[in-house]
Amino acid sequence: MKIIMLGAPGAGKGTQAKKIAAKYGIPHISTGDIFRANIKNGTELGKKAKTYMDQGLLVPDELVVDLVVDRVKQEDCKNGYVLDGFPRTIPQAEALDKALTDLGEKMDYAIDVDVPDENIVRRMSGRRACVGCGATYHLEYAPTKAEGICDVCGKELILRDDDKPETVTNRLNVYHEQTQPLIDYYTKAGILKTVDGTADIEDVFQAIVEILGA
Ligand code: ADP
Ligand code: ADP
Ligand code: ZN
User: Fold this and answer.
1) What CATH homologous superfamily does 2-116+170-212 map to?
2) What is the distance in angstroms between the CA of the first residue and the CA of the last residue of the chain?
3) Is the pLDDT at 202 greater than 80, yes or no?
C-alpha cells in the first residue's frame, strides 16, 4: 500500500500519516522530519535546507527527490509506505512516478486532507513539537498529559520557527502556488481521495480507513 498525503501546512498530514503507519505497519516517510533531523545533526543537507525552510520556501527539488527515491527502495518499504510532505511540486511528482515506473510499481492513493486557510494559522500557532522525539501536539486539539512535556519521551516542547505567523503566510502562498496543482495531477491519475480535515483527528482517521480498507 503506497500512499501520498496531500494538504496545506498544518492540515494534519503528519498526524494522520503516523496513525496510518501504525495501523497498517508501513513506514512513515516525512521529508520535513528528515530535513529537521539533518539540521539538528548539522549535516551539509541540513545547512542547505535550513536557509529555505526558515523563509517558508520549499527546498529545491534536486535536494529532495533523490533522498525520497532512495528511501522508498529500502527493504522496509516493500509492503508500502506513507509519504508525508512529498511530493510538493509537479516536478517532484513526475520524478517519483518515473522512479516507480522504473521499478515496475505505482502509487495507490493520494489522500488530500482538506482544511481551509482560515483554520490553518490557528492549527500552526498551537502546534508544539517535541525536541527529543519529534512527536507533534496541539495546545488546544491534541494536548499533552502534562503541560509542555512530551507524553512519549518526557522532553520539552517547542513552537517550530516556521510555525510563527509571519512564516505561515509565506508557506500558505507557496502551498497554493506550487503544491495545490498536485490535486489536479493525482485526480487525472485516478488516485485522489479527499477527506474533510476540519473534523476531529479520530474522525479524519476513520474516513481514511474507509478509503484504505480495514
Ligand atoms: P508541514 O508539516 O507544516 O506541512 P513539513 O514538516 O512537511 O511542514 O515541511 C517543513 C518544511 O520543509 C517546508 O516548509 C519546506 O521548506 C521543507 N520541505 C519539506 N518537504 C519538502 C519537499 N517535498 N520539497 C521541498 N521542501 C520541502
Ligand atoms: P501537517 O503535517 O499537515 O503540517 P500536523 O499533523 O502537524 O499537520 O497538524 C498540525 C497541527 O494541528 C498539530 O498541532 C496537530 O496536533 C493539529 N491537528 C492535526 N489534525 C487535527 C484535527 N483534525 N483537528 C484539530 N487539530 C489537528
Ligand atoms: Zn518526545
Assistant:
1) P-loop containing nucleotide triphosphate hydrolases (3.40.50.300)
2) 12
3) yes
Concerning whether 88 is annotated as a catalytic residue, the answer is yes
What are the pLDDT digits (tens) for 153-180?
A: 999 999 999 999 889 999 999 999 999 9
Say if residue 123 carries a ligand binding annotation: no
Q: Whose CA is nearest to atom 10 of ligand 2?
A: 10
- Spatial separation of the C-alpha atoms in residues 94 and 122, rounded to whole Å: 33
Residue 214 in this model has a pLDDT that exceeds 80 = no
Q: Domain ranges in the chain?
A: 2-116+170-212
Closest residue by Cα to atom 22, ligand 2, is 201
Residue 127 is a catalytic residue? yes
Sheet holding 192-196, edge to edge: 28-30, 81-84, 2-6, 109-114, 192-196
Does residue 197 contact residue 208 with C-beta atoms inside 8 Å? no
pTM of this prediction exceeds 0.85: yes
Q: How far is the CA of 125 from the centre of ligand 2 (A)?
A: 11
Ligand of minimum distance to the alpha carbon of 17? 2
Number of the ligand closest to the Cα of 131: 3
With 0-12 / 13-18 / 19 or more C-beta atoms within 10 angstroms meaning exposed / middle / buried, residue 126 is middle
